[in-house]
Amino acid sequence: MPELSVLLSVLNSETYIGEAIQSVLNQTYPSFELIIVNDGSTDKTGEIIRSYAAKDSRIVVIELEFNLGTSKALNEGLKIARGTFITRQDGDDRSLPDRFEKQIRFLEEHPHISAVGSSAYIIDAFGGRTTLDFLVNEPEEIRRTLPDKMCLCGPTILLRKSSFETAGYFYSDDLSFSEDYDFCLRVSEKFLISNIYPPVYEYRIHPDSVSQSKRYVQVRNKAIALERSLVRHYTDTSPSQLLSFIARDYLRAYVLASASKQTGEALECLHKALSYNPEVLHVNGELPSIVSRYSPKTNETENIQFIELVYKELIPINKQLNKVKNRFLAKSYLIQADKSKESNRQTANLIAALRYSPGLLLNRGVIKRIIKNIFT
């Protein structure tokens, strides 16, 4: 009987799945089963998985005819998991060779802690390390921080199966791209979670990553997961700070949905944000930083469209936000002017900036540039 069950759900990851599997097979901790759920892949992922399984009896393969999504696929693996401990491995990431050994030893040496994760090295599409995602380590700090933001690397969490069962054995299948966050909230409500350092995991960021392509759904579902946590955890009025976190997350979801022209979803998220915190649109609140965080960074034309879309539904609610929007637009037009090579185009952008921020008339540099372009 294996001591550890490793769950790996994968969809169309032929480029990286071999690295992910090999990183598990290379572990110094020997007593594990690797349960791979092929979630309806249509590329060569299934072929690669079967080639590994034919050579190593520790691999158990579940083939799904149709794509069910990450949570449902992982739940299929959980149904047959036999280990005393359970963890995950993502199909495009890599575990360092001593990951399982270090995490299980940590739990054995700290019986009052039920789950342990790790900080992670961030790697690119080619496997090169780009940075270090350093996470908080202490259990109480994790418990305080988690409602505000995900302070755990979901795939690294290794926990006792008994704790998983107590917290709710299975991933929520209606919280796509935030199932890890919901899982961590449920565990943290009943048990202590810790992180170990140095990192024992390499987390890959590439153009097809969930974190890059599905941000709206991810952010909205984070808010829903936190809503559910508050219902479970607080029977009466919830602390105002936690309510403000939910409001902020729904506002983030509004911004992302607006930018992708999902008007209905955006308005629903905006209504939710206001219901949790009527002051969420205050001019000195978090909205400007949220807009800056999600605005396009490489194309100012797209950035201007983004700002217009985001503020379209907000200004009727709080007219003071018009000044904030105008400042954003003026800044974007100034940046476009700096990048413009043609004098006519540069002048047009400078005049547009002045239209949104007349105070720039006091800026001698701006006026000199306009005059120079007109007379040259």
Give an overview of the whole structure:
The protein has 376 residues and is an alpha/beta fold. The chain has a domain at 4-213: Spore Coat Polysaccharide Biosynthesis Protein SpsA, Chain A. 50% of the residues lie in helices and 14% in strands. It is built from 16 helices and eleven strands. The longest helix has 20 residues, at 240-259.
Descriptive tags:
alpha/beta, Spore Coat Polysaccharide Biosynthesis Protein SpsA, Chain A, 14% strand, 376 residues, 4-stranded mixed β-sheet, 7-stranded mixed β-sheet
Give the gist of this structure.
The chain has 376 residues and is an alpha/beta fold. It has helices at 17-25, 45-53, 70-80, 99-109, 139-145, 161-168, 179-190, 210-213, 215-233, 240-259, 263-276, 287-294, 300-312, 321-339, 343-356, 364-374; strands spanning 4-10, 32-39, 59-64, 85-88, 94-95, 115-118, 120-123, 129-133, 158-160, 193-196, 201-204.
Secondary structure topology:
Layout (H helix, E strand, L loop, with lengths): L3 E7 L6 H9 L6 E8 L5 H9 L5 E6 L5 H11 L4 E4 L5 E2 L3 H11 L5 E4 L1 E4 L5 E5 L5 H7 L12 E3 H8 L10 H12 L2 E4 L4 E4 L5 H4 L1 H19 L6 H20 L3 H14 L10 H8 L5 H13 L8 H19 L3 H14 L7 H11 L2
Parallel strand pairs: 1-2, 1-4, 2-3, 6-10, 7-11
Antiparallel strand pairs: 4-9, 5-11, 6-9, 7-8
Helix pairs in contact: 6-7, 7-9, 9-10, 10-11, 10-12, 10-13, 13-14, 14-15, 15-16
Radius of gyration: 24 Å
What helical percentage do the residues reach?
A: 40-55%
Alpha-beta classification: alpha/beta
Chain-averaged pLDDT: 91
**Largest beta sheet: strand ordering:** 3-2-1-4-9-6-10
| Principal-axes shape call | globular
Main sheet characteristics: 7 strands, mixed
Known CATH architecture of one domain: Alpha-Beta Complex
For the record, give the distance between the C-alpha atoms at the N and C termini, rounded to a whole number. Answer: 82 Å
Beta-strand proportion = 5-15%
Q: What is the oligomer described by this structure?
A: single chain
